[in-house]
Amino acid sequence: MSYRIGKTLSFEAAHHLPGLPEGHKCGRSHGHSYQVTVVLAADDLVPPGFVVDFGDLSPLRSYIDDQLDHRNLNDVLDIPPTSERLARHFYDWCVEHLPLHDGVTIGSVRVSETAATFAEYTPPVGGGDR
Ligand SMILES: Nc1nc2c(c(=O)[nH]1)N=C([C@H](O)[C@H](O)COP(=O)(O)OP(=O)(O)OP(=O)(O)O)CN2
Ligand SMILES: [Zn+2]
């Protein structure tokens, strides 16, 4: 794909990670200022020169605000809320819910819990459904 654009959305949430060794700090409830970066790709632009309008990501903003922001992710998601699994969760959500025109693919989704860390999901080549 010739063009790639990205938008970062932020939210605050609590979580704990199950299955860690006894005493691991991330087994205890704590919170993060999450950042979710969605990258969209296309070979061609639509007028006036967009991959997509950044505003077209507003359904994801609404989902995050309504379902995840200031909540405990362990309560509202059915996955262990690691950064890696959250990145895949947001990728799947975008595939299902974002109204993208033909030729636009979701290149990757990156999730950061802190300024120093991230996890990224990129669909396998030829294996993505967008
Ligand atoms: N591969 C992953 N490792 C860890 C994840 C994760 O999602 N993927 N998550 C955590 C915890 O959520 C933890 O809150 C963050 O861990 P860490 O960066 O180690 O914690 P700090 O911000 O306190 O970093 P320090 O360098 O220790 O100050 C753990 N691991
Ligand atoms: Zn954490």
Automatic annotation (TrEMBL):
Protein name (database record): 6-carboxy-5,6,7,8-tetrahydropterin synthase
InterPro entries, sorted: 6-PTP_synth/QueD (IPR007115), 6-PTP_synth/QueD_sf (IPR038418)
GO molecular function, one term: 6-carboxytetrahydropterin synthase activity
Family per similarity comment: Belongs to the PTPS family. QueD subfamily.
Catalytic activity entry: 7,8-dihydroneopterin 3'-triphosphate + H2O = 6-carboxy-5,6,7,8-tetrahydropterin + triphosphate + acetaldehyde + 2 H(+)
The UniProt record lists the keyword Lyase: yes
Assigned EC number: 4.-.-.-
Residues that coordinate or bind Zn(2+): H15, H30, H32
Keyword Ligase: no
Keywords from the named record: Lyase, Metal-binding, Queuosine biosynthesis, Zinc
Native source species: Actinocatenispora comari
PANTHER family for the chain: 6-PYRUVOYL TETRAHYDROBIOPTERIN SYNTHASE, PYRUVOYL TETRAHYDROBIOPTERIN SYNTHASE
